[in-house]
Amino acid sequence: MGGLGSEHNVSEPDPVLKGAPMTASFPNPAPLVSAPALAAELGAPDLRIFDCTTFLSPTPDNAGLEVGSGRAGYEEGHIPGAAFLDLANDLSDRSSPHRFAVPGPEAFAEAAGRLGIGAGTRIVLYDRTYGAWGARVWWMLKGYGFDAARVLDGGFTDWVKRGLPVESAARTYPPATFQPRPRPGHFATKDEVKAAIGTGIGLVNALLPEQHRGTGGVHYGRPGRIPGSCNISSRGIVDPETQAFLPPAELRRRFEDAGMLDGRRVIAYCGGGIAASLTALALTALGARDVGVYMNSMQEWAKDESCPLECG
User: Fold this and answer.
1) Which pLDDT does position 170 carry in this prediction?
2) Which of 6-10, 71-75, 181-185, 202-206 shows the lowest mean pLDDT across its residues?
3) Alpha carbon distances (Å) from 107 to 27, 180, 232
4) Among candidates 274, 278, 293, 283, which has minimal Cα distance to 218?
5) Looking at the structure, do residues 238 and 275 belong to the same domain, yes or no?
């Protein structure tokens, strides 16, 4: 994937790190970095690496999810220089009834700056699962106008498989100044999604197929899907062994078959905007330019009886 570029407000391909091994190229590699490329830059003074791991487990009634922190795994071992980013507490609006709700611009800027994210820094995000947590933080940063962030393709799984170094010492970064520049349409709302039904705007459900059909899995209050949406499960777009994205040609085929790479606006959703952020990352890497994520997703939609659902 691409190297680590400097901060800019218009997405554009970054220069490849000199001598860094590359994996298969995407049309827009800017949001991604490979493990070898990151390894070549460890210790750079402007580089900030964050382990964003969070775990979700179904509640006993299968009507919701419980949140678990990934901090213990981070403390056992992480990429050298990485700090831990707790999405649920560090970068979520905890006053919202919706889990992982996006903070407003000023609150987000304060939190990001406190973590050391801001002007003059380059950010790499990763997790220990299948990439969705790193993608979620990347999507939030991008939504507030910060483009100097990358997601480590394959995350910690690929890093370890390659035999790259790991450390256990906890790290933090000095505070930075984050200037929010909100991008309209980046964080899709319930009203926008309602208005999109039947209009030709692409709606992509990133949940598992059984959740899409309404026949199994966590259903967030009511089972089913947003009418007219297609299903491209986020777990199905990564290699289960490496946790890296599938080859670009295969990813393109899946999204093209669903009509999601024809230039139309696409809105991705899931249960709480996590899996959908990985979908948005894949679409962005494939060159899509008008992508939104319904951040509150089914945890909001399914509990509102005025929001239609379909099953089957």
Assistant:
1) 96
2) 6-10
3) 34, 10, 32
4) 274
5) yes
HSE toward the beta carbon, residue 78, CA cutoff 13 A: 24
Percent of the chain with pLDDT over 70: 91
Whether residue 156 sits in one domain with residue 271? no
pLDDT band at 171, cuts 50/70/90?
very high
At 13 the pLDDT is: 33
Residue 172 within any structural domain of the chain = no
Same domain for 229 and 131: no
Domain span holding position 194: 187-301
Q: Do the domain assignments include residue 174?
A: no
Q: What is the pLDDT of residue 8?
A: 27
Q: Is the pLDDT of residue 14 over 90?
A: no
Catalytic positions: 270
Residues 150, 39, single domain; the answer is yes
Torsion on CA atoms 55, 69, 75, 20, rounded to nearest 10: 50
- Choose among 279, 278, 272: nearest CA to 218: 272
Residue 309 lies in a domain: no
Residues 225-238: tens digit of each pLDDT: 999 999 999 999 99
Question: Which pair of structure tokens corresponds to residue 35?
Answer: 């493990």
Tell me how many domains the chain contains: 2
- Please check whether residue 182 lies inside any domain of the structure: no
**Spatial distance between the Cα atoms of 7 and 25, rounded to a whole number of angstroms:** 21
Q: Residue 100's domain is classified under what CATH number?
A: 3.40.250.10
Q: Quote the CA–CA distance of 75 and 71 in Å, as a whole number.
A: 6
- The answer to whether residues 151 and 215 belong to one domain is no
